Amino acid sequence: MRLPLFDTHTHFDVPDFDQDREQLAYEAKEKGVEHLILIGFLHSRFNDLIQAHQFINQLDHAPKSHLAPGLHPFYIEEHRIEHLYALEHILQQHECIAIGEIGLDTFLTQHKALEMVQKQKDFFITQIELAKQFKKPILLHIRKSHADVLSILKQQKFQYGGIAHAFSGGIEEAKAFIKLGFKIGITGQITNPNAKKLQQVVQAIGADHVVLETDCPDMTPLCCQTSTEHRTRNTPVNLPYVLDGLAECLKMNRTQLAERVWWNSLKTFDLIS
Ligand SMILES: [Zn+2]
User: Where along the chain is a divalent metal cation 1 bound (predicted)?
Assistant: First the structure.
């Protein structure tokens, strides 16, 4: 059965999709994907992000596209102060649903260096300030830095909520984000039987605090992977498999769960009319 779904995190603008973006958009809509968000990561991609967004929205029978521009912590070496002005300009000129993806990522050794951590924090805080100025939710990328992200959000008294995307933290951390008004973003990783920590988090917080995402072209659900040697491209068409994995994990009826996460998504982005 076709249920209305909201892909809250995609990189559907990247060149991986240049050959068949239109076709995939139609297929995604066929599968029930009514909305998708195009998320920013680098200043050099802002123009393409906006173009892909406008392209999708002029199609008939395609998901409605939303823009969430931002500067991703993983690419911290490439960000410049001017890029923040460009971000502010986009927020002024275009209808944006959120700012993303922003946060902290100290997975790589070179990102653990003090000056890199500081630069990530500076860019994160400035983008939180922009989100406050424009009254927008934020889409968080957090790797090996949940405590730091939580403490910055508290210091900043951030009140517009958002999503902790592709959540990799523990139960207590998930609860702390929920307390600050965030939803927990679930990718195709939930379909992986080895993802025990994620399954425990989902079972502890329940359906009221989760949203679905593909994070395409990454995070392909296990069932859709065609090869173990080469990376299989993920697409918004795979979103129903994330719902299936979540339903199985929560032992919930698929239709009821879809209704719940749909509502969670609309509420996060203030789209309830
Ligand atoms: Zn992403």
Answer: 9, 11, 101, 215
